[in-house]
């Protein structure tokens, strides 16, 4: 039997607070202020929502299971993970299963969450699979999900669509905005939608599944942004104006940046002053939130969403892309309305705001939390802060076989291709701080021939590094692996019952592994590993076991701890 103990320690050195740049400090500072990013982890494509005094946030998950993370907050700064919207991805396509594991760089792209007639809706385009909607009475779940249907009642199983955003107008009519990325025909479209939010009334699945065409009404919605590379769609209404926001990622349209269209009419206004209509849109006024030379020069957080406070204040929560191992972390900024245009940021000049890294908390008086935290595995259900690399094999993990433990059983990786094809790898998002330390303890006396188990860093299917123990020919041996390159370590004494692995990461995202046989004295093991994002994903820290010889062996994992700066969750 093997026992497995994990400590996740994140320590932020108490630097002098510098508001002009990102540091290893982030989130709630415990003094009435917060630092951006709000969460220094890959909660990419964030979309916030307020219902009463509660805030909710959804983020993209790509190949991870369950799909579309749902978080809750009372102050927009301290977030806890409460659930996920898509809990049966294998029913969508077997590519999400441990038998295939083929949804790297696919799956659940940017979602949106809204609340309409006492029901929560999450819309997400599974980039490789189609338009999807999930509904729930409680944002913690359970969620009921299904394909959005076309006008003929067929599921919109179409590929390469992204970034949907719904809108219900005052008269109850519903609409959905979405984009179709591509080299030649990358535009945003607005579709008429049934009032129950399940059907696009001017969409034909056969038409929308075609590639390299400009989609045409009444089978492909209406192009609302005639500018190439529009994405990151948001649609809302305020003071009688309809607002349609998008981002452009190339210079084939208005240039890289964020833009807002507005009109007193949803489909724009025609030259004679009459409203535009589906298939015949009019013109919009255009406001440039930010225009840049490239995404590397972003001055403000990009793709995200607006959210209001009960007292009427507006805020923007958007991702800041810096190509770091933390992926695209969400940042929070105030919004100032000037001439009925939303201006994001602080120190506004000439209708353009600036980034701020330290600000007063929007709401005071609530305790400090982070979405990644300790776990004693004492509950009957797995805490929603955990994710799996693709959908797990349910008969190979359990919280009930041994009370207070998460048991992971080993089985072969897909086609015996190793770690990135090893099913039932369980993980949380890496949270970048001044120093991040993760320590694992494994009892190895129950290992079987061919089994490997350990601690790993990995991203969206391109790179990984792991420290593990393997059992072959009766010998227990340490193993370091980085992207297929293996360094064999020391063999362990035959009577050795435990081994500890540790990864240490600095703010520069340089990581190294260590090991110990007693949990006190650690030795460096393997090389230095540069954490990187890949396929739109930040880094994950996970625990895994697999056996490419047979389905045999297991590990028991029974503790998890995290400390971040002045915060300690146990």
Features:
570 residues, 44% strand, mainly beta, eight-stranded mixed beta sheet
Number of strands: 43
Helix- and strand-based class?
A: mainly beta
Q: What is the general shape?
A: globular
Q: Indicate the proportion of strand residues.
A: 35-45%
Largest sheet: 8 strands, mixed
Helical coverage, percent range: under 10%
The strand order across the widest sheet is 29-30-41-1-32-37-38-39
CA radius of gyration is 24 Å
How confident is the prediction overall: mean pLDDT? 91
Structural features, described:
- 49% of the residues are buried.
- β37 (498-506) and β38 (510-516) form a beta hairpin.
- The two termini are 26 Å apart.
- By secondary structure, this protein is an all-beta fold.
Topology, element by element:
Layout: E1 3-11, E2 27-28, E3 33-35, E4 47-51, E5 54-59, E6 64-65, E7 67-73, E8 80-86, E9 108-116, E10 119-126, E11 130-136, E12 144-147, E13 162-168, E14 174-179, E15 188-193, H1 205-208, E16 222-225, E17 230-238, E18 241-248, E19 257-263, E20 285-291, E21 304-308, E22 314-319, E23 330-338, E24 341-344, E25 346-349, E26 352-354, E27 358-360, E28 387-389, E29 397-398, E30 406-409, E31 426-429, E32 435-443, E33 451-458, E34 464-472, E35 475-482, E36 485-491, E37 498-506, E38 510-516, E39 523-530, E40 540-547, E41 554-557, E42 562-564, E43 567-569
Parallel strand pairs: 1-41
Antiparallel strand pairs: 1-32, 2-3, 3-27, 4-5, 5-7, 6-28, 7-8, 9-10, 10-11, 11-12, 13-14, 14-15, 15-16, 17-18, 18-19, 19-20, 21-22, 22-23, 23-24, 25-26, 28-31, 29-30, 30-41, 31-40, 32-37, 33-34, 33-40, 34-35, 35-36, 37-38, 38-39, 42-43
């Amino acid at each position: 039997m093997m026992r497995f103990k994990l400590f996740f320690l994140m320590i932020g050195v108490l630097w002098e607070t510098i508001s002009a740049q990102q540091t290893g400090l982030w989130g709630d500072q415990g003094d009435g202020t917060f630092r951006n990013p709000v969460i220094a982890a890959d909660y990419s494509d964030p979309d916030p929502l307020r219902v009463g005094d509660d805030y909710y946030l959804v983020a993209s998950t790509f190949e991870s299971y369950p799909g579309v993370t749902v978080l809750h907050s009372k102050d927009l700064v301290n977030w806890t993970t409460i659930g996920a919207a898509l809990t049966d991805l294998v029913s969508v396509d077997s590519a999400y299963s441990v038998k295939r594991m083929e949804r790297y760089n696919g799956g659940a792209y940017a979602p949106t969450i809204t609340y309409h007639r006492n029901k929560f809706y999450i819309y997400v385009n599974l980039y490789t699979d189609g338009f999807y909607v999930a509904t729930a009475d409680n944002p913690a779940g359970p969620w009921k999900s299904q394909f959005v249907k076309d006008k003929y009642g067929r599921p919109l199983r179409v590929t390469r669509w992204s970034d949907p955003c719904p809108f219900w107008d005052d008269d109850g009519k519903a609409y959905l905005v979405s984009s179709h990325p591509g080299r030649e025909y990358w535009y945003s479209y607005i579709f008429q939608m049934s009032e129950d939010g399940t059907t696009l009334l001017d969409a034909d699945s056969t038409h929308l599944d075609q590639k390299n065409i400009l989609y045409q009404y009444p089978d492909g919605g209406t192009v609302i942004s005639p500018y190439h590379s529009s994405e990151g769609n948001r649609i809302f209404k305020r003071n009688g104006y309809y607002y349609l926001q998008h981002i452009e990622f190339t210079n084939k349209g208005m240039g890289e940046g964020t833009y807002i269209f507005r009109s007193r009419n949803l489909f724009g206004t025609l030259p004679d002053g009459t409203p535009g209509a589906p298939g015949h849109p009019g013109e919009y006024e255009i406001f440039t939130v930010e225009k840049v030379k490239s995404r590397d020069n972003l001055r403000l957080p990009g793709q995200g969403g607006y959210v209001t406070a009960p007292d009427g204040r507006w805020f923007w929560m958007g991702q800041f892309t810096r190509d770091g191992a933390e992926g695209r972390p969400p940042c929070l900024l105030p919004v100032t309305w000037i001439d009925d245009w939303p201006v994001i940021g602080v120190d506004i000049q000439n209708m353009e705001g600036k980034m701020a890294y330290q600000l007063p908390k929007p709401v005071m008086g609530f305790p400090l939390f982070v979405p990644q935290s300790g776990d004693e595995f004492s509950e009957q259900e797995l805490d929603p802060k955990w994710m799996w690399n693709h959908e797990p094999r349910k008969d190979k993990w359990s919280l009930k076989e041994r009370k207070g433990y998460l048991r992971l059983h080993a089985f072969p990786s897909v086609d015996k291709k190793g770690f990135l094809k090893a099913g039932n790898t369980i993980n949380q998002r890496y949270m970048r701080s001044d120093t991040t330390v993760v320590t694992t303890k494994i009892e190895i006396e129950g290992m079987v021939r061919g089994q490997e188990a350990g601690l790993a860093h990995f991203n969206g299917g391109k790179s990984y590094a792991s420290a593990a123990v393997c059992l072959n020919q009766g010998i227990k041996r340490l193993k370091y692996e980085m992207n297929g390159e293996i360094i064999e370590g020391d063999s362990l004494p035959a009577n050795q019952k435990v081994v500890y692995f540790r990864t240490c990461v600095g703010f520069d995202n340089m990581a190294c592994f260590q090991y110990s046989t007693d949990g006190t004295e650690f030795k460096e093991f393997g090389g230095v590993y540069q954490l990187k994002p890949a396929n739109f994903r930040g880094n994950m820290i996970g625990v895994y076991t697999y056996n490419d010889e047979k389905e045999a062996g297991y590990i028991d994992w029974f503790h998890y701890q995290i400390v971040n700066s002045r915060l300690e969750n146990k």
